[in-house]
What does this fold into?
Amino acid sequence: MNSSPLAVESAVKQRYAAGAQAQETALCCPVIYDPQYLKIIPKEVIERDYGCGDPSQHVRRGETVLDLGSGTGKICFIASQVVGAEGKVIGVDMTDAMLEVARRNAPIVADRIGYANVEFRKGRIQDLALDLEKLDTELRSRPIASADAFLAAEGLAQELRVKQPLVATESIDVVVSNCVLNLVESRAKRQLFEEIFRVLKLGGRAVISDIVCDEEVPAELQTIPSFGPAASPAR
It folds into this structure.
């Protein structure tokens, strides 16, 4: 039986929430980062950030950068130093525990480099228009207790996408992602790449470090929530 997209997403959130609470070496691959950028980043961020590459080395001064699946913020904090005070870095993640670590350490990094140019937003990287924190706020005053309320909530979500998007259309110079796109459920990957295209400025670019397969993954492996997303082809 196939896992539903929501089951896959829930499994990803649970595993990475645990990874935000305590370091999990099995969640990342060894990567060498430029030590000059790591010196000012708190140890907690470095230990609990999970990646397989360094897309920040393709970022340039003055750019607006969007990091998809920003986790505890390591790539964002590296990019913030590269783009400088005139640049801007936005991290998007859906896991509250990861966002808490990143946001708590952002002022520390800003104080050490002398400027604040990083912010972290809550959202799903395949739906970069929907601000989940704004939706949370609205739903607290309009709890879903009926089918009509559910349909109203769907309408509210769409209104937020249009009027108060998490990431505006054509607002980003470079989208980066470090070992996260593979975690998106296979059926949502097309939407994911459409969203990347939407937010990029004309002439913008995407720099993606990730895990891919060069052949089809057996269906029985794709249906295991704790294993399938990372194994499914990021295509």
